[in-house]
Description:
The chain is an alpha+beta fold. It has helices at 24-41, 46-51, 123-128; strands at residues 3-10, 55-65, 74-84, 88-97, 100-112.
Amino acid sequence: MADQHEITIRVRYSETDAMGFLHHANYFNYFEMGRTELFRSQGGDYRQMEADGHYFVVATLEAKYHRPARYDDVLRLVTTLTKVGAAKLEHEYAVFREDVLLATACSVLACVDGNGVVQRIPGEIAAKVGA
């Protein structure tokens, strides 16, 4: 299993720190953008999924920073769905400026109901993500 999606992001001034680098916390927002667009590309709809009472919450998220990004850099984020379990999704991320690797990360998302109780990924969602 390795479904993959790519988006382009331009670093905004408000996302940088006092040194002009992309602040490390903003990568986590980018990773969420990558997951959302990957799911959308698979035919998924987060708004409808949540209206139906199903949610994906971040259980773990680890990032490694290799090189800095700066204001106005155009970044390429590659998001890969690496594993679909009964109640979890695992993703890997790679952020590039042209062909230079800037950051890598991995996450585990758990499927929960409206009360935060872990549940199996519903069949219609599992079918969209290729399970």
